[in-house]
Structure formats: structure tokens, C-alpha cells
Amino acid sequence: MFSAMKHNQITDNALVLYDGAMGTYYRWLYREDYSLLEAVNLSDPDRIKQIHHAYIKAGATRIKTNTFAAFPQMLEKSADQVKQMVLAAWHLANEAIYELKAQDTVKAVADIGPYFVLQSGLTDNLRAQNEQAYLDLAKIFIDVGVEEFLFETQEQLTDLIPAIKLIKSYNPNAKITVSFSVNQNGFTRIGLGLRELLTQAEKMDEITFTGLNCTLGPTQLSQVFAEYSQFSKFCFFGPNSGLPERDLGRGRGGAEAKYFAESCQRAWDNGAYQLGGCCGTNPLDIRALADLFKNQKPLIMKKFDTKSELTVFEQPGFKADISEKPESGKEAIKSIEVSEKSWYERLLTGEQIVAIEYDAPTKANVKTYLEKIVQLKDAGMDLMTIADNPNGQTRIDSALMASRIKQELGVEVLPHFTCRDRNLFAIHSLLLGLATCGVHQVLAVTGDPIPLEDRNQIKSVFNVNSQSLLRYISQLNLELAQPFILCAALNVNAPNFDAELKKAKRKVKSGAQVFLTQPIFTKRGKENLMLAKQELGDKAKFLTGIMPLVSQKNALFMKYEMSGIDVPDRIIERYANLDREQSEKLALEISRDIMTDLSNVTDGFYLITPFQRTHLTAQLCQEWKSAKAP
């Protein structure tokens, strides 16, 4: 029923193109301005209007008002002050449309973001306060005759309902879109499932459309959209430019915009005919969407089996709990004996060790995961690393998983520790627990900041950053019978590597003994590694990142949607028109060549397992170990 309804609805409509980001684009244009974005509607209205102009000229047919966080408590302003900001935002959007004589093709849309983080078990009083916040903002828009509303980046629906019903009671013809923000598994940060939310929205006549925006880049958000495409109202799609960073400090050009638009194709083919951009996007991205989709007819395709395509779209570490049977035709990897010395002792004596990253599952069933670790161990892996909820996706705790692996399999594990989610009490407790379980190495990373769209909702902890966390653990080491080996991250692909190198020197002073680098694909990355070795080689060891790229889509994703990774076009072009087996063969070839090229300038390697394909990193490890064996 849903699919049929949606088909009729979509084929009667052409492309509806929303604008891109206001917040991140404004911060990129005016980096000296730290004003509340909604307050700029009054303090410097021409800046906001010029951004509206840019998006209209790029082809947008829907312009969102600059009112994402226009709630008095969130902005810490009076109700009257916020009302003036909202009224100014509405007039600015319409003035921009009028000045460009676009009244016949472009409409202003009232933009309403999420009101704080809403948790289950709220008291009736708090629930009423949340509902009232949405009601108050809706009333301002109702009074000026707004006809289209976008409730974006939402994590729940219940508290929006009174405002949605109020809008419809005043204007039965109003169009109301509710767009949710979910992770790769289809859950909001407060634990609500997208299926439940969309089902609830389908039953409400007051809601015209539903959709997805924010949190993920175009590739992964398209994947989520395809999985839920059977819902009849589900047609709005506004991804971020990428992840994990929100591109606040990086300009985006034509190549990035073209990739962004093409990565939305899957969502379009599954019924997303209302397109736009969220954090990190700019007018070039909207222009690229217009160019690609303005002449395409919306269509409905049969629902994808997303599991069959995870290996194409997924970023390393995602969906870690998906089972894989041993592949036929693969030669068994021979076990390699390892020395009784620890991985760090062998590193200090000049032996090139091999560490392999294999992130913890997203679910509690770890049978397949542990079996694959045995495969890596048998291949000669010296050290296993586990990232700490990479890219904001919830996984089994890296420290707890490391403890189990150490105790059950006898594998040396390096858990990553981010500073975003834990205060020092929690960090101290986990470190003591690791020490008692025989895990005596950690990697300290600051962790990605809470993105701009989440301001005033999720609170980062950040009692420490990576440098001060290293210093803190160094102090703790004085109390331990066996101190922790302290590891840190080094981005050899950073455009301003001088600043990165200064940061690395501060980390060494704070206790860092080993650096794990971002994957290297370029000459610049190698040169920066050599410079780091020259500056710090007698004070720290380096494990160089190696990432097998398993398809052209994977290579493009890494180039355009992952920060800190630089993939040359010449490598991307080599994957054109290759099937899975050919792509894996090429991935191994390229990785071997890079390892050989870097062997004289590194102390060891850090292999990153792509899409749970442990047979690839195991084979690389086994071959490298065999070649180095006397």
C-alpha cells in the first residue's frame, strides 16, 4: 500500500530542491564572527540575505529561514528577542526571493530544529515545556502566514505533535515536513527507531512529508533511505557533506559537489525527490544537485537488499556484526610463530611489527568477530587495535572488548580512548580495569567534536584532550606495576603539517611513545612521515597506516567524505569497472606497493580492515611477515 501511494505522489511532482547549510556555510564565510547565528538576522541581515541569494542562484526552490535553534532557552534570550529574530529571518528569506524575481519558482520555508535532547522517562512537566517551545515558535510563523514548514534534524515526534496540529488548525493547506536524524543503523541518538517514527508519521494526516537529514554523508544516508523507502510520505533527503567532521574550515569545490550529487542518486531512485544539503554543504552542492536531477524523472525502484551492498557503501568498521562465511577458493593463511617478547619490546629492537585495526561489533553477538580475530592472529598480527565508537556510531566498548580478547584469545589489544564522552573519573576507572585484565597499551585521541547542529542538545565532556590525557595516564603509570604504553595519532596528510608536527612534539612531552598515522597514499604523506621521523625518531616509534581500498566507490568515499585521508585520482581511476574479486586483488597490490615504498622510513605498519574483510589484512600481514622472515 505504501509503495503504490508513494509512486502516485512522486510521479505527479518534479524535483523540489531545498538549499544547503546555513550554519556551517556562514561560519566558513565569516570565520571571525562567533555570534549566535539566529541573532545575525538582526545584527547583519545582509549576510544572511546574500547566502539566500547564493542558494537561489544555485537552483534551490525552497529557502529555509535562519531559525534552526530559535528557542529562547537555547539562545539564552528573551521570548521577545527571539521573536524579532524569527520575524527578521522570515522577511529576509522572502526579500531574497523577491529581489531575484523568483516568486514564481521559489518559496520560503519555516525551519524548526530540535529542542534540546529529549530522553525517555521525562516528567509530564518537562514534556509540557518541550511541547510549548515548539508551539511558541510555530505561532510566530502562523501569524505571518507561513505555508510550508520543515521540522528538521528531529530525534522524536511526540513533542512536535501539538505544534503540528496547531499549524493545520490555522491553515489546513499547510505543508509540513518532518525530517529525522539517525545513525547508520536507523536509530536516533535517544534510541528511537526510524521505522517506528515513520510508522507514527504515516498515521498523522497533519504531516505531509517525512525524510532524513544530517548526521551522515550522502553515501550512508542514501543507504538508510533505501532501506525505509516503502513509506509513502518518505521523500525528503538532506545529507551532510561527509563525516566525521562537518567541513567548517574547508572550502568545497566542483569535484566535491559533483561527488555529493552523484552519491544522492540511490536515494533519488528510491523516492527522494525533495533534495537538499545539511552540514558542510554550500551552493556548489545545490547547483550540482540541480544539474543532475532537474531532468530526471522520479521513479520508485524495488527495495534494495542493503545487506548485499554493504561492502560497496560501508566505511571500515560499520556493520561489524554481519556474519561472513569463509570464502571458497581462498588459501588458508599459515600460522606464523611470534617471539615471546612484547610487541613494543620488538619495536624498540628494530623489528617492524604489524598492527591491525578491527573495530568492535555494534551488537552483542561476537562469535564471528572473535573467529576473525583468530584468523588475524594466525596470520602473524602483533597488535590489534579497536577504535572507540568511530564516527559517532555506538559499538561495544573498546576497553571491554579489548579485555575479553586479551583474556580469551591471548591477543595484545590497543583500545582507543576518546575524550569526548567520559570524564576523568570514568577514564581512570576504565584504565584500572584494563590494567587488571592484562591490557597495557592505549591510544589517546581527542575525538570528534559535537557537530554544530547538535549545539545545546548533546554535551561533550572533554575534561581533557589527547595531550592532557597522555599526561594524565603518564601520572597514573607511576602507580602501576606495569605501566601503559602510550600511543597517539598523527595525521601525515594534514595540509598544514607544521602545526601537526608541533602538536606531535607536545604529545611526546606528555608521554606518547608510539604514533599511528592516517593511511598514506601520496608522496606528500610519505615526506611528512619522513619529516616526523627526522624530528622525533629518537623519541617515538611510528606505525604507518595502510588502508586497502576495495572498490572505486570506497575510494571516492574516503577521498570526499572522510577527513584526514588523501586518495589520489590516479588510484581511484584504477578501480574503474572492476568487480569485487578484481578490486580486492588491486587493493592488495596497491597496499603491498605502499608498504614496500615506506618500509625504510617506518617502524611498522598499521593495517585498517575494510568492511570486516579480515582475509585482506590477514593476507597482507602474512605476506609481509613471510617476506621479512630470515
Summarize the structure in words.
The protein has 630 residues and is an alpha/beta fold. It has two domains: 302 residues, Homocysteine-binding-like domain (TIM Barrel); 226 residues, TIM Barrel, CATH 3.20.20.220. It is built from 25 helices and 16 strands. It has an eight-stranded parallel β-sheet. It has an eight-stranded parallel β-barrel with strand order 9-10-11-12-13-14-15-16, surrounded by six helices. β11, α18 and β12 form a beta-alpha-beta unit. The longest helix is centred in the first third of the chain and has 21 residues. The N terminus is likely disordered.
Secondary structure topology:
Blueprint: H1 2-11, E1 16-17, H2 23-29, H3 40-43, H4 45-58, E2 62-64, H5 72-75, H6 79-99, E3 107-112, H7 124-143, E4 148-154, H8 161-170, E5 175-180, H9 194-202, E6 209-213, H10 218-227, E7 234-238, H11 254-262, H12 265-269, E8 274-275, H13 283-293, H14 310-313, H15 343-348, E9 353-357, H16 367-378, E10 383-386, H17 398-409, E11 413-418, H18 424-436, E12 441-445, H19 466-477, E13 485-490, H20 497-509, E14 514-519, H21 523-536, E15 541-546, H22 552-561, H23 569-574, H24 580-598, E16 604-608, H25 614-628
Helix pairs in contact: 4-6, 4-13, 7-8, 11-13, 16-25, 17-18, 19-20, 24-25
